[in-house]
Design a protein that fits this description.
Blueprint: H1 8-12, H2 15-18, H3 22-48, H4 55-78
């Protein structure tokens, strides 16, 4: 009979040094507006996938994309984000 063992020791053994550093957390915090804008744009695109796009929907998609571009520009101008 084979024994089934958990991998808890293997999973938790690496936890202390796999945590993000303060610098990495600061970069994530700086990128939060961009991430939120990208999620909003993706939500808009997904909502428009199952129906024909009318002028209002097209405008909504353009505005969501413009918010992503504005967030990327703001992040690039601050110099805190990494180059993509």
């Amino acid at each position: 009979m084979e024994h089934i063992v958990t991998l808890e020791a293997a999973v938790t053994a690496f936890a202390p040094w796999l945590e993000p550093t303060d610098a990495e957390l600061a970069v994530i915090e700086a990128e939060a507006p961009l991430i939120a804008a990208e999620v909003e744009e993706l939500d808009t695109v997904i909502a428009l996938m199952d129906r024909p796009v009318n002028e209002l929907d097209a405008r909504r998609a353009r505005r969501a994309h413009a918010r992503v571009l504005a967030a990327r520009a703001a992040l690039a101008n601050t110099g805190t984000g990494e180059a993509a």
